[in-house]
Specification:
heterodimer, A: mainly alpha, 66% helix, 0% strand, B: mainly alpha, 2 domains, two-stranded antiparallel sheet, 2 strands, 75% helix
């Protein structure tokens, strides 16, 4: 149970980073922490206490296996997260070139 | 033939990466073929699905059956969305041939555009919740890059905001999927519905519903989650804005909400109450914020929020008539909002501005743009006989039918405010005296005119879709698929057997 609570705390840390930080890069790190918390959450409930790897061989005991499906899901989610993070960092660099700052309070040409 | 909706645009988008650098002409041809083919195929599928006894077609990926493998399901609702998405995509693609000449690297644009199309087609045909998530992310990532396409300061700022909010929405959706999987141990939509129905009602499903409303609601830009849309949609190039506003928010947001809540989790009166409340809130907030705008594209973006409110309101009523109104408005909004954004693109192409105060008297110089824009404006504000009138009328009648006069009142008020806002657009942009700077203005090139005229004709004649015989081909199968509710799983299982 404590692992779920710690995972939730990690998610809240990410949300805190997104909401409270003024630096673009720190906001991006916040989103990355959020994604990792979600991935970790998926992995945790796929885990079985004392379980073994889900490889089926003839005559093997299939009673106590770790859930392999969530690991496949997390792998996909990590790849998606990587693509998004790479794109958003590239955007942040271009924003720095245009505005000369990473401070979110000084990047406000859009209004209305 | 179902997987072709994903395979063809995906393959062509990568072929364009390889061969497109050499000639723009080749890009145009390939991209138009890749978006035209799914449109023809979806029209064909309309009849295949219509003539099949259960009103659905299933494809097993790799030959694996339901709970173990991924399956693609095309029922009335899916084919309705496919026709809408691919119709708009092919029209926008024709528009792009001339419009995108002012940008460098046309091939990059086409690649991203087709990837976005892949994502949307994929969401609509997928019968697996995690697959839906993957396609949603493909469409989202492509749209991030397209919003930032011009790499100017404002566009980058809007993109950053869009990406951060979208990533959060995706996290919420993934947490929701994780909870559902841990509770039901399956990811297939039909199987999920079957397992959830066997179990007793639980708070897990309520919590998952909240997560999905947040996640998909943010993608659909329903009001408390709308902040990214008025920045992101106007910043993109005009064809991309029209694709984003026209179909992306509906395929990613409205369709996913509809499919998951009606066919998998099951709806109840509390949930429908939330939908109608969010719908009315979106209608009023969107339209009130739109009235004061002087930037044409920003004004249109706020109207997207308001019109999605109508769709959500119609779907939230939960009666067959309300759902029919909602779906019909979804189709109509795709058509006229795409057309309005294409008009704004045509104006920007000729005059170089999107500020309404700097325009004036364009009617004489740009007759095609002006008349199609007038048709679309009348359609969006619900003037008979344009298509928007019929869908709004159906939604309002459905509100009255379930004795919710209050909702009907807000819907009518929203429509009147929409009309006033579009009167302003017409007055500033097309009527009045011509500015001196625009004396030598020309109408836009042929391909741009063509797609605007076709969409304009659909705006005028779209009302025929509710006539008895035509209705039974296009709209009512979609309504039946939604109203089947949890019967969705029986349909899919009996087809898989």
């Amino acid at each position: 149970m404590s692992s779920y609570i710690l995972c939730f705390v990690l998610f809240l840390v990410g949300i805190y980073g997104i909401l409270r930080k003024r630096n673009l890069i720190k906001i991006i790190i916040g989103t990355v922490i959020c994604e990792y918390a979600v991935n970790l959450f998926l992995i945790i409930f796929g885990y079985r206490q004392g379980g073994h790897a889900p490889i089926y061989s003839h005559g093997a005991d299939i009673s106590n296996m770790v859930d392999p499906l969530v690991q496949a899901l997390v792998l996909t989610a990590i790849v998606i997260g990587l693509a998004t993070t790479a794109l958003v960092v590239a955007v942040a660099i271009r924003i720095y070139e245009k505005y000369g700052t990473f401070d979110i309070t000084r990047i406000r040409k859009l209004k209305g | 033939m179902i997987p072709l909706f994903v395979i063809v645009p995906l393959a062509v988008s990568f072929i364009i990466v390889i061969v497109g650098k050499k000639s723009d002409f080749l890009c145009d041809i390939l991209s138009n073929l890749a978006s035209g083919f799914p449109f023809v195929a979806s029209c064909f599928l309309l009849f295949v699905v219509g003539s099949s006894p259960l009103g659905a077609v299933v494809y097993k990926v790799g030959g694996w059956s339901a709970p173990y493998g991924i399956n693609l399901v095309v029922d009335g609702l899916s084919v309705f969305m496919l026709v809408t998405i691919n119709l708009i995509a092919s029209m926008i693609n024709i528009f792009c041939i001339s419009y995108m000449r002012k940008y460098t690297a046309k091939w990059k644009f086409y690649t991203l555009f087709l990837l976005m199309l892949v994502g949307m087609n994929g969401i609509v045909i997928s019968g697996d919740i995690f697959n839906m998530f993957i396609f949603l992310e493909i469409a989202s990532v492509a749209s991030f890059a397209l919003v930032a396409y011009g790499v100017e300061a404002e566009e980058l700022e809007a993109t950053f905001k869009y990406i951060i909010m979208s990533v959060l929405a995706s996290s919420f959706i993934l947490v929701g999927i994780a909870f559902l999987y841990s509770y039901a141990s399956t990811l297939n939509l039909a199987d999920l519905a079957a397992v959830l129905q066997e179990k007793a009602p639980s708070n897990v499903v309520v919590f998952v519903s909240v997560l999905f409303i947040m996640g998909f609601g943010l993608k659909a830009a329903i009001v408390p989650f709308h902040a990214w849309l008025p920045d992101a949609h106007p910043s993109a190039p005009a064809p991309v804005s029209s694709f984003l506003s026209g179909v992306l928010i509906k395929a990613l947001g409205v369709y996913a909400l509809l499919r998951i809540f009606y066919n998998v989790l099951g709806v109840n009166s509390h949930l429908l109450g939330v939908f109608t409340f969010l719908g009315v809130l979106s209608i009023m907030v969107g339209v009130l914020l739109a009235i004061g705008q002087m930037d044409l594209k920003r004004l249109l973006a706020y109207h997207s929020i308001s019109q999605v409110g109508y769709i959500i309101l119609g779907l939230g009523l939960g009666t067959p008539l309300g759902i029919m109104g909602g779906l019909f408005h979804l189709f109509n909004h795709s058509v006229f909002k795409s057309l309005l954004f294409l008009n704004s693109g045509a104006i920007e192409y000729s005059t170089g501005t999107r500020n309404l105060e700097k325009m004036g008297g364009l009617r004489r110089k740009m007759p095609v743009t002006s008349s199609t824009s007038l048709a679309a404006s009348m359609a969006i504000s619900g003037i008979p006989p344009f298509n928007g009138f019929f869908s709004k009328l159906i939604i309002i009648i459905a509100c009255v039918q379930v004795h919710k006069i209050g909702l009907a009142f807000w819907a009518v008020l929203g429509s009147i405010l929409t009309l006033s806002s579009f009167m302003k657009v017409q007055k500033y942009a097309f009527f009045g005296s011509l500015k001196k700077a625009y004396a030598s203005l020309k109408e836009v090139p042929c391909s741009m005119q063509f797609s605007m005229v076709v969409l304009g004709i659909i705006c005028i004649g779209g009302g025929v879709l509710i006539l008895p015989y035509i209705n039974s081909v296009f709209l009512s199968p979609a309504v039946e698929a939604v109203m089947k509710g949890l019967g969705y799983k029986c349909t899919v299982f009996s087809l898989l057997r």
